[in-house]
């Protein structure tokens, strides 16, 4: 079988993550002929580090090339839907980072849309973006892979096996992604990020919960359990006056019109519920956790931190440049030193599944339905937070991803 030829789009944080995790597949299942990024210097840096032969400064150059089968979108969220549509029109398969899309208010470039645009409009337009993506993909022969690594994380895979053998009912899930704040410039403003902590971080646990309730429903009845309504609150904790006066800031505080904290309750049609927490104000390294209360079992999933390796040092300098964990403020004291953080978070498994799907024509475990339902759930949560009341979701066909 000929290798799959992947063009990388974007050249910073997540592009490096993907390149690291394609390593095991390169040279036999995949080839990476080119990278395109808006910032030429970053693209040159990525190309040099990972031996990518060609660099372009415009995404469309990849679409013109006959030696590229798939584009891997590692660009800010506001670009996702338009790039997917253009790729589909050019006959290129798509791998796209989370979240799929949102509301970006393109017609109001100067406005702080997070403060000014009502959430009803946002929900409608975010769904319109999902529909435009779905329509473009439907009319083409290209496949779509949604890069939601939680679906592939080994702790979540083990959880699914335990759910299957227990035959219990998932009654209650408490899931969280939090850390001390993104360093990506696009994340500060709604017009490029499409939302704050809930969309950027919460997309992971929300997708995982949707995926698990779908999985449970398929086991029990052959149909996924659907999300029926959501309730949410959002906050800007870094705007608290006493915090603003503190001289030393340990958490990122330069948020503009986006929330830095959110909690959301997902109410499923079968009466079960999930509580999601997403925060950019949590010290101590990234938290990716999930507790699943079944009717006959409890499973605690610790993607990060996990205690596979615990390391102590009396001074932060003792471990030098050795990586300990994402977003850790200090290497002093006891720390959780994940031996392979990418593996435990599901990145290599995710990319291997996508490559396998695109080579064989199979649907990925994380695809368009999951991507769209995550956008809908989160934008309904924004509406709930604005109105101070529960928001019902429209009836849609069950997840197929
Ligand atoms: N799965 C995960 O765990 C994870 C982690 C971080 C980010 N992400 C997602 O990845 C996406 C990118 O995030 P990031 O942290 O890498 O952002 P980043 O700011 O670090 O990198 C974005 C890259 O896109 C490039 N870019 C911007 N506009 C472009 C254009 N018009 N054409 C081509 N390139 C362009 C930039 O030059 C930059 O190289 C976001 O959607 C984010 O939600 C996912």
Q: Give the overall shape.
A: globular
Bound ligands: nicotinamide-adenine-dinucleotide
CATH class of the largest domain: Alpha Beta
Succession of helices and strands: EHEHEHEHEHHEHEHHHEHEEEEEEHHHE
The number of strands is 15
Which runs of at least 5 residues are low in confidence (pLDDT < 50)?
Answer: none
CATH architecture title of the largest domain: 2-Layer Sandwich
Q: Classify the beta-strand content into a percent band.
A: 15-25%
Query: Which fold name corresponds to the CATH topology of the largest domain?
Result: Dihydrodipicolinate Reductase, domain 2
As an assembly, this protein is: single chain
Strand order of the largest sheet: 12-11-7-10-9-8-15
List the domain count as a whole number.
2
């Amino acid at each position: 079988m000929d290798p799959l030829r992947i063009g990388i789009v974007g050249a910073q944080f997540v592009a490096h993550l993907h390149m690291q995790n394609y390593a095991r597949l390169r040279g036999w299942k995949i080839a990476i002929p080119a990278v395109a990024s808006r910032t030429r210097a970053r693209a040159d840096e990525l190309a040099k580090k990972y031996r990518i032969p060609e660099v372009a400064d415009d995404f469309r150059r990849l679409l013109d090339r006959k030696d590229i089968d798939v584009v891997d979108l590692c660009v800010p969220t506001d670009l996702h839907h338009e790039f997917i549509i253009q790729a589909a029109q050019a006959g290129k398969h798509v791998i796209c980072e989370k979240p799929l899309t949102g509301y970006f208010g393109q017609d109001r470039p100067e406005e702080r849309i997070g403060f000014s645009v009502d959430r009803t409009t946002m929900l409608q337009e975010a769904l319109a973006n999902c529909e435009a993506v779905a329509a473009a993909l439907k009319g083409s022969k290209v496949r779509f892979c949604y890069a939601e690594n939680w679906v592939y994380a080994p702790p979540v895979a083990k959880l699914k096996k335990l759910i299957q053998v227990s035959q219990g009912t998932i009654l209650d899930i408490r899931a969280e992604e939090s850390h001390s704040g993104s360093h990506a410039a696009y994340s500060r403003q709604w017009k490029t990020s499409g939302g704050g902590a809930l969309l950027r971080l919460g997309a992971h646990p929300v997708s995982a919960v949707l995926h698990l309730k779908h999985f449970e429903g398929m086991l029990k009845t052959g149909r996924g359990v659907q999300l029926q309504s959501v309730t949410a609150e959002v906050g800007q904790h870094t705007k608290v006056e006493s915090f603003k006066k503190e001289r030393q800031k340990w958490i990122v505080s330069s948020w503009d019109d986006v929330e830095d904290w959110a909690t959301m309750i997902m109410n499923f049609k079968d009466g079960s519920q999930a509580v999601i927490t997403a925060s950019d104000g949590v010290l101590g390294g990234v938290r990716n956790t999930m507790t699943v209360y079944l009717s006959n079992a409890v499973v605690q999933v610790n993607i990060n931190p996990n205690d596979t390796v615990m390391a102590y040092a009396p001074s932060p300098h003792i471990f030098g440049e050795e990586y300990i964990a994402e977003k850790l403020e200090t290497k002093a004291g006891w720390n959780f030193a994940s031996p392979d953080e990418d593996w435990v978070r599901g990145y290599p498994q995710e990319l291997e599944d996508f490559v396998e799907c695109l080579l064989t024509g199979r649907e990925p475990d994380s695809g368009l339905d999951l991507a769209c339902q995550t956008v809908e759930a989160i934008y309904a949560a924004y509406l709930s937070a604005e109105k101070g009341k529960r928001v019902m979701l429209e009836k849609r066909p069950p997840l197929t991803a």
